[in-house]
Specification:
- With about 300 residues, this protein is of the alpha/beta class.
- It is built from 12 helices and 8 strands.
- Helix 7 packs across helix 12.
- It is globular, with a radius of gyration of 18 Å.
């Protein structure tokens, strides 16, 4: 990727979700690097498309929350390689981003751990099969996972979580504090990490910085940020994410364009000298229309309003 010409701009680490590949976020990496942010997209052996493909063929158990320690080690190795110059990426500050489990990895990399009482919360949450919030199954698997002790990287300045989740790990009535602002994105058609239960609750549960926000796109789904290039060219490959419109949601390329703009706006507000203006806050709810798509930018105050109305 092209190195940033602005030395004060952070570099960005992107982590795919469970079963995802770096190719799914090539579009976002290109967009950010073209705008001057150096980008690294991680690959996670053991929880990538190859691992899920092996499960579908009956050759292994399905990967789940047990892969999170390995994912955290992958991330730590990349951060160390960049710091010592082995990884030739410029930047003294870093933003961690990811999709779904990749977003959870970014949150855990800040040093936060599930609040006590997860087993009890899971018993209550899983009384009924959570067909409208499948992420709860994965969250509850963390009861059996020994997460390594970590602390936030010294160079960390922000988190970008696409279709993030963690409402059982960090309930709103037992918040934790992450040390940096976070941008959480989601879509109204997401049945895996539904925004009211996950992105909005997570925004409030992580004691948000005034620059933190949730961005929701009407008609977007859990898989809207994923771009399968072969799908666009009508060629055939073995990508597991050859998803139909009912799963991808409406106008995925337009949704990705909107998400890209919101991510760039967030990254620009992390630039030294702009924190003061950004931290002054703004309207609790901002509505934006782009063509037939509707986007909502929501801060902590707006999240409380929406959750109280729901």
């Amino acid at each position: 990727r092209r190195a940033s010409q602005a030395s004060d701009r952070p570099w960005v680490v992107l982590m795919p979700g469970l079963g995802g590949t770096p190719d799914h976020f090539r579009w976002l990496g290109r967009l950010l690097s073209d705008q001057g942010w150096p980008v690294v997209v991680l690959e996670h052996p053991g929880s990538d498309s190859e691992a899920v493909g092996a499960w579908l063929q009956g050759n292994r158990r399905p990967p789940g929350a047990e892969v999170l320690p390995d994912r955290l080690q992958d991330l730590e190795a990349v951060l160390k390689a960049q710091a010592n110059g082995t990884l030739p990426v410029r930047g003294e500050r870093v933003v961690l981003g990811g999709h779904s489990m990749g977003a959870l990895t970014a949150m855990l990399a800040t040093g936060v751990r599930p609040q006590p009482g997860l087993e009890w919360r899971c018993r209550e949450a899983l009384d009924d099969l959570p067909l409208s919030n499948l992420s709860r199954l994965l969250q509850c698997q963390l009861n059996a996972v020994d997460l390594p002790a970590t602390k936030a990287p010294a160079q960390l300045v922000g988190i970008v979580g696409m279709n993030s989740f963690g409402s059982l790990l960090w309930p709103r009535n037992r918040p934790v504090r992450i040390p940096v602002p976070a941008l959480l994105t989601g879509g109204t058609l997401d049945l895996i990490t539904p925004p009211l239960n996950e992105q909005l609750e997570l925004l409030l549960a992580t004691a948000p910085d005034p620059r933190s926000r949730t961005v929701l796109v009407e008609g977007a789904s859990h898989f809207s940020p994923i771009r399968v290039e072969a799908k666009l060219t009508e060629s055939k490959d073995n990508d597991l994410f050859q998803l139909g419109e009912e799963l991808v949601g409406v106008q995925p390329l337009q949704v990705q364009a909107l998400l890209g703009e919101e991510i760039i706006t967030f990254l620009e507000q992390l630039t030294p000298g702009r924190q003061g203006a950004a931290s002054q806050g703004g309207p609790a709810l901002i509505h934006r229309q782009a063509g037939s798509l509707h986007l909502h930018r929501i801060n902590a105050e707006g999240a409380i309003q929406l959750l109280n109305e729901s």
